[in-house]
Design brief:
The chain has 2 helices and 6 strands, in the order αββββββα. The chain is mostly beta strands. The protein folds into 2 domains: 1-37, no CATH class; 38-86.
Length: 100
């Protein structure tokens, strides 16, 4: 099931195990129910970026993906934008650079 889910084109994967009535041996039939995702999906994400150098700011990411069920292929376009500025001056690093 992990391999089926890794394609990224199915919303739900349901496995049902049913005893095989046609045999006297202990066998199971497996019924796999697959619910496809929408053809095109849009994911939006907002975040805040902070770095140890004193730079921080808001970020935004958008992902547009299109799934192709017959070929089990997925195409995705990712757009990411981050605005950063320095809030504080890291005086210890500048002092260390002066010594060297």
């Amino acid at each position: 099931m992990t391999h089926i889910n890794s394609y990224g084109i199915f919303k739900f994967i349901n496995l049902r195990y049913i005893p095989d009535p046609d045999t006297s041996e202990n066998k199971l039939d497996i019924i796999i129910e697959l619910s496809p995702m929408k053809d095109i999906s849009l994911d939006l994400e907002a975040n805040v970026v902070t770095k140890s150098t004193g730079f921080s700011g808001p970020g935004f990411a958008a992902t547009i993906s299109q799934g192709n069920l017959p070929g089990c292929k997925q195409t995705a376009i990712n757009l990411t934008e981050v605005l950063e500025w320095q809030w504080a001056n890291n005086s210890s690093s500048t002092a260390w650079n002066r010594i060297l």
